[in-house]
Amino acid sequence: MSVNTGRGQLAALTRQLDSQWQQTKEYWRDAKSLEFEKKYLTELTSVVTAAVNHTEDLGKIIARIRSDCE
Known about the structure:
Layout: H1 3-25, H2 31-69
Helix pairs in contact: 1-2
């Protein structure tokens, strides 16, 4: 799997999770749902965004290395 493929899959799965969470929030609206969102989902989104950004940089570095080695 290439870096770009992995990055795309990670971003797509995170969007899917967010969509499903939005649907879940229509039925689960109490203090525990807010706690769950703040404790897990907010941090997860932040970490995934950073990972996606870093894998984009990594992909560029790998492409440059391959180009230099040819």
